[in-house]
Design goal:
Elements: E1 8-11, E2 19-25, H1 29-35, E3 49-55, E4 70-79, E5 90-96, H2 99-111, E6 115-116, H3 121-128, H4 134-145, H5 149-159, H6 162-186, H7 198-217, H8 219-227, E7 229-235, H9 241-249, E8 267-273, E9 276-282, H10 292-307, E10 310-315, H11 321-330, E11 335-340, E12 359-360, H12 369-382, H13 397-418, H14 423-441, H15 449-456
Parallel strand pairs: 1-6, 7-9, 7-10, 10-11, 11-12
Antiparallel strand pairs: 1-2, 2-5, 3-4, 4-5, 8-9
Amino acid sequence: MTQDIETICAPATAAGGALAVIRISGPEAITIASSICNHDVTPLPSNKVHHVQIQTPNVSQSESSSKRETIDDVLLTIFRAPHSYTGEDSVEISCHGSRYIVQKILDLLIQNGCRMAQPGEYTMRAYLNGKLDLSQAEAVADLIASSNQASHHIAMSQLRGHFSSELKTLRNQLLKLTSLIELELDFSDHEDLEFADREELLTLAQTIEAHIARLSSTFETGQALKQGIPVAIVGKTNVGKSTLLNQLVDDERAIVSDIHGTTRDTIEETMDINGVQFRFIDTAGIRKTNDKVEQIGIERTIQAIKKARIVIWLLDQQPTRSEKNEMSELSKGKRRIYVHNKADLIDINKFNPYIIPLSLISAKTGKGIPNLKNRIYEEAQHAGLISNSNDVIVSNARHYDALVHAHENLQRVLDGLRQQQSGELLSEDLRLVLSDLAEITGEGQITPQETLNNIFSHFCVGK
């Protein structure tokens, strides 16, 4: 792929705010910016903010520059290559957020030689100019989309190159393994020379395999943190599931009624607990019914339980042992929280804590809700979904697919080492592993144009 060397421009902020930022990048960025200002900005120092006026050009050669119409007083910053986001000469203009002003400045820039940038083109140029690798470039989109502390942390970690550093370590380990196998091939006729026996190669390959497997295993956690940890609110009809959802998200999100079977489908809403986004799913009440529509809703409840990481079993009376066993079977493998609703109406002394440990709440009054939120957060921690460490977490499906393929190819290397396969076959599989990992960062290979376009098309125009 060859880089487009045209100078591009685009707003880098959403419309409608008090201020707007217009970004220009390319070989003529500073010259074009100067042509629409009230004085020459090309000699101005880089990385400093300058106060200038954006003005229209003269109508005719006979008119003086004083007749130029001032569009806006702006702040202008120059970034000279390679010390810019894109690695090219760049200019950022901070103006008032009026749609008219922004459009007028863009029109002037285009009249003087710019073209409008395509979605993601600035970040694509940063990648092509070596300012970011491909995984870091994708992290820019994740950072823009982050809606809570956890997803922000993942995106920032990836943007700062923590994931890239892990891949670099893997690459170095693979290169060492490849080198040892190549040496084995080159000196196979010299029985008295031994660079590495097969056991040493197998140990090194197992270390690499464990590293890749660990990274792959974080994807489920990464997706949960990125999209919201799914929490299903489950129970019989009319126990207060919809009321609880409304109380948790502090909004009248679900219809509340004393009529059994009111909720016929799942209702989802998200909220932040201690910087982590949770996705609460209000489900249809579980009971025996001949209503076909309600039966569909109950089936969707079961599907919601399967997809959830945490299940809140909402009760309005002490469950029997058989009921507890049924709940345990339906939510097998999930973190479970048993909650007794309507705590304001019950006598706690009548409960047997040995049958089932219950959290007491009143979804109607809000009693016990703060404690329940803390319990939900703790269950997410116990499930391994929340970590205070700096471990790399994979949240991008493309990265996960590449790691899965790398793991599959490395398994063939391990099998080959155990079966004493020839070095030629082992080397070929190792090259495939290296190629799979290179797909993530875009290094060491020519990336197809359609792959890049697919990745960067998800960016906003100003990025």
